[in-house]
Amino acid sequence: MLGYLAQRLGMMAVTLFAIVTLTFFLMHAVPGGPFVSERMLAPEIAAALNAKYGLDLPVWQQYLNYLGRIASFDLGPSFKYPGVSINSMIAAGLPTTLRTGLLAVICVVALGVPLGIVAALNRNRWPDTFVMFVATLGVAIPSYVIATVTLYLFALRLGWVPTFGLDDWRGYFLPVFALSGFWISFVARLTRSSLLETLQQDYMTTARAKGLRPGQVLFKHGLRNSLLPVVTVLGPVVANLVTGSFVIEQIFALPGIGRQFVLSITNRDYTAIMGITIFYAAILMVMILIVDLLYVWLDPRIKLTKATA
Amino acid sequence: MTDIAPNAWEKLPPEATASAPPPPAPTFGQEARRRLWANKPAVISIVFIVALVLAAFIGPFFSPYTYYKQDLKLANIPPAFETYTVSDGAGETTRIFLNASNFNIYEVDGQGHVLGLLRGGRKDLIQKSQPFTFGDTEVTLDYSRLPARLLAADGSEIRPSGWSWNRTYLFGTDQLGRDILVRQLYGAQISLTVAFVATLVNFFIGVFYGGIAGYLGGKVDAVMMRIVEIISTIPLTLYVVLLMVVFDSGLLSIIVAIGSVFWVDMARIVRGQILSLKSQDYIAAARTMGASPARILTKHLLPNAIGPIIVTLTMLIPSAIFIESFMSFIGLGVTPPLASWGSLTSEAVETLRAYPHQLFFPAAAISLTMFAFNFLGDGLRDALDPRMR
After folding, report:
1. I want to staple B263 with a disulfide (CB 3.0 to 4.6 A). Which of A34, A51, A302, B205 is the partner?
2. What chain A residue is nearest to B241 in terms of C-alpha separation?
3. Are the CB atoms for A217 and A208 separated by under 8 Å?
4. Cβ–Cβ contact A129 with B under 8 A
5. Contact flag A266-B331 (C-beta cutoff 8 Å)
6. Shortest Cα distance, chain B CAs vs residue A290, angstroms
7. Using an 8 Å Cβ cutoff, are B36 and B383 in contact?
8. Each residue of A143-181: pLDDT tens digit?
9. Would A135 be classed as within a structural domain?
């Protein structure tokens, strides 16, 4: 277990290094410096600014400095907001993003899995047709369309929920729904097909033949085995909830990291874009690692050393 | 055992035994086509996609408007409106409609063609009203209470005389007075172009990469797949965002950005297929006969892996459409005045409260297209690769 963990952490470090390198050189490939704007800076001021941020050094030295800072968990200063560090930007946005993201994950598991079970147990009857219809809708409609349409219907037309912000607990409904809509549908479809496959296995017949109660058969033998693929997609779910939050936080004006990221893009705040990308990547890799460990724990058949694939 | 008919043992006449040779078994392609045509949602999707492509690429030629022509006087006109009839006292009547969201009055004709914006008298900013004169008749637009009303000279409210579709701008106009229908069609053109070209780029990179990794195997395969693993650790949307920040936003850069990133799935699938196919006897036979690796790959391996490749391609198209619209939505896609479904949606969100119809069209268009490609992908998967069901 520990050896596996060490190997995975080593992989993560390599990946993170690759991402840092990639983002650094990508951002340096952008034409123009960070202080190029409509208002021309006096050459002395520009030189002073460049010296302050170490931009007068050769690129490789800047790169090494940046690597060194990243290693000590410092993502550097923002070039657009003087005196604001990327770390403080992320710290300000993290609670909002974390709360909506966590609620969305809970929704995905708490709605997607039961819907899939109901559909599988009622195969080809109306609950199945209904769930599959809704799931098809949910998979096809982009999250920002769900967000804007529900915003119009429930916030503007019916006035049940606020149009923006999270000051009111009802403000969570629409963003969380828009974030999780696709994945609820996806997980429901996955659970359904996986459970249908499991129900046909011989050990299910054996369990029934032993005289176990139907509930026991379903939960102990059926679900435990059919939920493994669902656990596998939870990693990508977290990843996509994160990127989904760019648009959702923008639409609902939630002060999270996603909105900050989009704002940095519009402002061309390159250090912020770099910093938030690296932060996202790190968080995601940790999440995927957790999911993989969970997977191993759930399914003892998987050998730890082979779980990297 | 006793009820066998006595004549069952008799010899059959010779012509009955020499039955016609069995019809040739349907080829893989025929079988797949039959299965696809039997799948109703997939067929409807194909029809929809063909119609959409035709409309997107030919439709704009039939429109008198262009995607960039602005007419601020005719901004934010809805696709349908309630008409009022006002007579000027000299036997002439004027048909007008009131845009309740920007308090403008437009003249329309009997068929629903928009003739123009009517200039009223001085706005009374305190009473929140504006007089309009039609010959001898004076009509007051009162917007002190919402919704706005039209009042006759004696203070009574004028009721609408009917309603009509907008025949000049079928889908209405946006906040700069551009025809929404034409912008929709141009948006479809851009979204579809990006999706198809980016998918094609993905296809070539993915097949090349996956084919080499799968065919060579061993250390090369391990290294190449490790790289794929690293790439797929972070969500591809982040890469696309980064690339779009580096490139200037525009049609070409978004194609390059999407095309250079989303090949990972394709590479994996091609590699898996090649790995399982390459131990087949006919590959060994080809190799024994001296076929070069390139020939084996292109003539023997890839054609046999074509089913899953096509399915993956069809599944890539909706995700490319989605990513493009997503990028345009957050302002990294095509540059205005060019439109794509994403930028149309984000423009519509700005005016959502007053003009919800502007949101309806792009949202419906992208959702329907995503549906069609999803159904088509499912249908193709069932038809080409029954094992993946």
Report:
1. B205
2. A265
3. yes
4. no
5. yes
6. 13
7. yes
8. 888 888 888 888 888 878 777 777 777 778 888 888 888
9. yes
